[in-house]
Every structure is written in C-alpha cells, then in structure tokens.
C-alpha cells in the first residue's frame, strides 16, 4: 500500500469490531497486537478507537444486536455513500443502516451483500481511514468467504465498482482479487469446501504477525481459541483464530 495511505473506490478503508464484551476484547487485542485502546465515551456511543503506535488500525463498539455473532466489519471506500446505497440495492443487496453522517468524521452505511454477508461503506470526512497497513500488528489483507463465488464477484463489481482479476476458477479453488492499477486490495474466496451449507458470506481480516505460532499461543493465553492451525502457503504462514467472544480473525506471518 502506498504511503501515505490512499484508498481507491471500493478498497477496504476501515475495520470495526462489534463485541458483546468490550473489556475482554480490549484486553485480548492489546495483549495480542500491542494496540492502544481509547474510550470515546457515551457522547460517541461508547466507541473505542484502536491504534498501533499512534496510527489508526480500526474501531470497536458494543454489540448493538443481541443474538448476532460478534464479528469484524470491513468498510469499503465510497466517494458518495448515497450513490453506493443505490448501487447496492441495484446489485440485489440490502442496505441495513444509513446512509448517515458520523458527525464531521464522514458518512457511512451498513449493508448485506448478495450472499447476506455484512459489509459497510465509508465516505471519509475528518477520519481518512486506516493509518497503517501490512505492518506487524496491523491489518494486512481483507478477504470475503462465500459459497456463491460468481454472484458475489458480480455484486462487488456492481455495488462498489470493483475491477477484479480471477486468480483461479476450478471446483478445487476459486479466488478473485480486487485490483486497482495493478495493486491488490482485497480478495474473494470460494468457501464451498469448508463453509457450512446455507451460511452467509463473511469478511475476514488478516493481521500481520512476526510469528504465527507464537501469536496463536498468545491468543489462547488471552482467552481466544485456535480455529485453524498454522499452515505454510505461498503467501506466508496463515492461521485462523477467534477472540474471547467468538469473533473470527486471521493472522499472517510473511514469508
């Protein structure tokens, strides 16, 4: 990602954890990634900002929908969320919240995509988005897992203006990337081989770590759980884990 960070249309620009236990989540992520958490107070909906050495890595807020699993939400860059809302509906998605102002910080919406996966859009104001990417302790990759691969690729092309490159398209492995000027920003994975039948799509965030095995051991110490053991891939050593309330995330150790 270029420095200073720039976010073309449709690229991930912000991440946000909805959690049913804010104190536990704060302890977990502070201990795992070395983040600093800052409470903004009731005037701001008890939102918690997340920083890595002074650079924004996302936000955290109390779960607003009882019974909904805790999860990380990925926000995609929009130059006009009202136009994006129309495009989402035209692409057979559903706008669940917004578009609305977040004071002077920007405008946002939350939507369900064509496979019912939750995705959000952010039109920057004074909050320009993530301040650091692809450094140890920061988000490094963003990936949508779905059992409706081709439908979802078309949805994000229509709703967020994605230009995609298909990396593989066989029953064994289907994967597409969002590319802007040759730079990859996000991926779509066919999850048919391992996703529960009928389960909605879901975005997963990869966080860069120095040592994937050590990160998983530390996560367990902090109350998390291992979902997928570390495995070497052409893109680094990867693993999946859950935080203390079950929100999924991935860790990525570079080659």
From TrEMBL:
VOC domain location: 11-124, 138-254
Pfam families: Glyoxalase
Transmembrane regions listed in the UniProt entry: none
Domain of life: Bacteria
PROSITE patterns from the UniProt entry: VOC
Record protein name field: VOC family protein
Species of origin: Frondihabitans cladoniiphilus
């Amino acid at each position: 990602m270029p420095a200073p960070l720039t976010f073309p249309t449709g690229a991930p620009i912000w991440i946000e954890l909805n959690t049913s236990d804010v104190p536990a989540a704060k302890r977990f992520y502070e201990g795992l990634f070395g983040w600093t958490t800052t409470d903004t107070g009731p005037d701001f909906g008890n939102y918690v900002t997340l920083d890595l050495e002074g650079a924004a890595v996302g936000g955290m807020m109390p779960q607003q929908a009882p019974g909904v699993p805790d999860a990380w939400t990925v926000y995609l860059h929009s130059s006009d969320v009202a136009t994006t809302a129309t495009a989402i509906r035209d692409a057979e998605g559903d706008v669940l919240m917004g578009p609305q102002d977040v004071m002077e910080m920007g405008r946002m919406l939350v939507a369900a995509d064509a496979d019912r996966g939750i995705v959000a859009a952010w039109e920057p104001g004074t909050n320009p988005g993530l301040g650091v990417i692809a450094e140890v302790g920061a988000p490094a990759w963003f990936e949508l897992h779905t059992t409706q691969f081709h439908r979802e690729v078309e949805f994000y092309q229509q709703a967020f203006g994605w230009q995609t490159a298909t990396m593989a398209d066989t029953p064994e492995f289907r994967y597409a990337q969002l590319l802007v000027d040759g730079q990859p920003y996000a991926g779509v994975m066919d999850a048919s081989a391992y996703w529960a039948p009928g389960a909605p799509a879901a975005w997963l965030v990869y966080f860069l770590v120095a040592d994937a095995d050590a990160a998983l051991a530390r996560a367990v110490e902090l109350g998390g759980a291992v979902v997928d053991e570390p495995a070497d891939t052409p893109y680094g050593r990867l693993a999946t884990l859950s935080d203390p309330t079950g929100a999924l995330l991935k860790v990525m150790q570079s080659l």
